[in-house]
Design a protein that fits this description.
The complex is a heterodimer of chains A (about 190) and B (about 400).
Chain A (H helix, E strand, L loop, with lengths): L1 H11 L3 H23 L2 H18 L10 H19 L24 H14 L4 H12 L4 H8 L3 H21 L13
Chain B lengths: L2 H16 L3 H11 L2 H19 L4 H19 L3 H11 L5 H16 L1 H7 L9 H13 L4 H24 L6 H18 L8 H28 L2 H37 L5 E11 L3 E4 L2 E4 L5 E3 L7 E8 L5 E9 L6 E2 L2 E13 L3 E4 L2 E4 L5 E3 L7 E8 L5 E7 L6
Parallel strand pairs in B: 3-6, 4-6, 10-13, 11-13
Antiparallel strand pairs in B: 1-2, 1-5, 2-3, 5-6, 7-8, 8-9, 8-12, 9-10, 12-13
Helix pairs in contact in B: 1-2, 1-3, 2-3, 4-5, 4-6, 5-6, 6-8, 9-10, 9-11, 10-11, 10-12, 11-12
Classes of the chains: A mainly alpha (about 190), B alpha+beta (about 400).
């Protein structure tokens, strides 16, 4: 944490290598978060870039007042995702399973079975609330802690735990209903 | 164990998992002797593992990093030459696409603002024309997002057309590459518009397609004017460009028509109305598909006859939703009609040379066509050979091959 604080302060002072290290450290996490929120890899790529350009633009205004840098960055990512939904004109999240059959839109970094599971997960996510989607994306895709997630979402840690619990419960039920084997067997040890 | 306690235990086990300690997570859940908690952790672990496996494409990663570094460099206000030597040296060699743009930027920095300004009015085969094109590559490189990219391709098409018009009015012959560049800009704009579903981004799509249609119309007028006064030798070289322009115009007009019909359809179909629609399937997922201009959704009560596949026709009965999509009660999937019509879309028979054969996209005389599992292939098509193609233009402007007949063209 202390090391990150130093990096952020150096980046604020105009140290490009510090900004580069922050970028390298958060880029995959932000991408994973965004792709789970918007569903379409091509859109996720655009949004991820916008997040980091915004980070550069606004990093000078970030202050350490107790909230970690990650919460601030993912708040930007969250706002960009919301902007994207607004731009689509309906204020609703995109259909998460659209485009999964189109090779140009599929995530080439996933193998075929994982891609299939990813499509199932995206479809199941459509059946949970926006807040539950948000907590799943922040905790599981971005790997944020309860405290960090709580800062991004502006809710208490207890509320985040409850939300996470209800999201996992709902997803388990929805995945089972779809006949998916994702998360239905004991295979969580790598 | 009540829900609050279970949420707390799940969170603790998940923290152990996120810290890379699955065994600890498992022990923790097992010690609670709560089967439901164990099941929830299984699901959470599977989701977490799947989500952690997602990674951005290597090409995107490299290009995004390059753009980030450029943005960073612009903020630092250091001397341009030093900035670039540092950053180009630091980047991964696999990043070819942005490297050319970066090299262009260095060239432009070296050329200076006055040169770049003077180059903007240059024409093909003039000394400053490469500077103009390098400047365009840099602009294209910094166009991030679907809308800016489409606008960039439109501006490019417009520039190429202006060059063609100026060459024509000056009585000079246009190089063949200029026609290819013009077609390529149209192709790219249409391809960028394609991922937007028909009921989304309608305004952007309509404006962009209208502009493209305008550019295409003027392009064809110019080419026909050139043809009318050209010598027979030049006439022969103009013919492919005119044919290609006509196909581009058809694609753009078909896409524009679809967008306008969708707009009209969205206006008249009020939410809650029971409707019957059909159209060629251009996109499908587990719970949704796009058939013609319609976004269709399924739920557990949807009766599905047949398997939705790209290029098949879907006949749908359902109810219009507040967002304009249709929640289907019944979907019947059938192959396109064999009488030369693909759903409601007209088909075209063209003869072309195959330039490249990727698994799902082939290049023909500068155009990209989709080849799917439903495309019937006769004979043995090969790169460099000619074949006859029965194609249809999808509502988003992409070209779908229904039939490829390599045997129809003697070798």
């Amino acid at each position: 944490m202390q090391q990150e604080r130093q990096l952020v302060e150096r980046a604020q002072a105009g140290d490009a290598s510090a900004a580069g290290l922050l970028y390298e450290s958060y880029f995959p996490k932000v991408y994973r978060y965004v792709v789970l929120r918007v569903g379409e890899p091509a859109t996720a790529e655009d949004i991820t870039e916008e997040v980091f350009l915004k980070m550069l633009e606004a990093i000078g205004s970030f202050r350490f007042t107790g909230a970690p840098f990650s919460s601030w960055l993912f708040r930007i990512a969250h706002n960009k995702v919301i902007d994207h939904h607004r731009r689509r004109g309906k204020g609703q999240p995109a259909p998460l399973d659209e485009g999964i059959s189109a090779p140009a839109n599929a995530d080439p970094a996933l193998g075929a079975p994982a891609r299939f599971h990813f499509a199932e997960l995206r479809a199941a996510l459509q059946g949970v609330t926006a807040a539950q989607q948000q907590v799943v994306a922040l905790r599981f895709a971005a790997g944020l802690s309860i405290a960090e997630t709580s800062r991004v979402m502006g809710r208490s840690p207890g509320a985040i735990k409850a939300l996470q619990h209800s999201a996992v419960q709902a997803l388990r039920r929805l995945l089972a209903k779809r006949g998916s084997d994702l998360g239905q067997t004991e295979d969580y040890e790598r | 164990m009540n829900a609050k306690e279970r949420a707390q235990r799940l969170s603790e086990s998940l923290d152990a998992l996120l810290e890379g300690q699955p065994a600890a997570a498992r022990r923790q859940t097992a010690s609670e002797a709560d089967p439901e908690l164990g099941q929830l952790l299984q699901t959470a672990a599977a989701i977490q593992r799947l989500a952690q496996d997602i990674s951005p494409r290597a090409e995107f990663k490299a290009a995004a990093r390059a753009r980030f570094l450029v943005a960073l460099a612009q903020r630092r206000r250091e001397p341009a030459a030093r900035r670039w030597s540092l950053e180009l040296g630091a980047l991964h060699p696999a990043s070819r696409p942005w490297l050319s743009a970066a090299a262009s930027l260095v060239l432009l920095l070296a050329a200076g603002a006055g040169t770049v300004g003077a180059a903007s009015s240059s024409l093909p085969q003039e000394a400053l024309y490469p500077v103009k094109r390098a400047s365009e590559r840099v602009q294209g490189f910094f166009a991030v997002g679907a809308e800016p990219r489409v606008r960039f391709q439109l501006r490019t098409a417009e520039r190429r057309l202006q060059e063609l018009l100026r060459l024509q009015s000056g009585g000079r012959e246009a190089p063949p590459a200029l026609f290819a560049d013009l077609g390529q800009a149209t192709d790219r704009a249409v391809a960028l518009l394609a991922p937007l579903a028909p009921d989304q981004g309608l305004q952007i799509k309509e404006e962009a397609l209208q502009k493209l249609a305008e550019v295409n119309a003027r392009r064809q007028e110019t080419l026909l004017a050139l043809l009318a006064r050209a010598e027979p030798r030049v006439q022969a070289s103009l013919a492919p460009a005119i044919g290609s322009g006509a196909l581009d115009a058809q694609r753009v007009n078909a896409a524009l028509r679809t967008v306008q019909e969708t707009k009209a359809g969205l206006q008249v179909s009020s939410p809650g109305a029971q409707v019957q629609r059909s159209g060629l399937i251009t996109r499908h997922g587990i719970r949704s598909l796009v058939a013609g201009p319609h976004s269709i959704r399924f739920d557990d009560d949807t009766r599905l006859e047949g398997t939705p596949e790209l290029g098949q026709v879907a006949e749908v009965v359902g109810v219009v939703q507040p967002d304009g999509s249709i929640l289907a009660s019944q979907v019947r999937v059938r192959p396109p009609s064999p009488d030369g019509r693909a759903g409601e879309l007209p088909t075209h028979r063209v003869r072309a040379t195959i330039e490249a054969m990727e698994p799902e996209a082939w290049s023909l005389d500068g155009h990209t066509i989709l080849v799917t599992a439903n495309t019937l292939i006769l004979g043995a098509p090969a790169v460099g050979s000619q074949a006859e193609f029965l194609v249809t233009i999808l509502p988003d402007g992409r070209i779908l091959a229904l039939l490829i007949d390599a045997a129809a063209v003697p070798r």
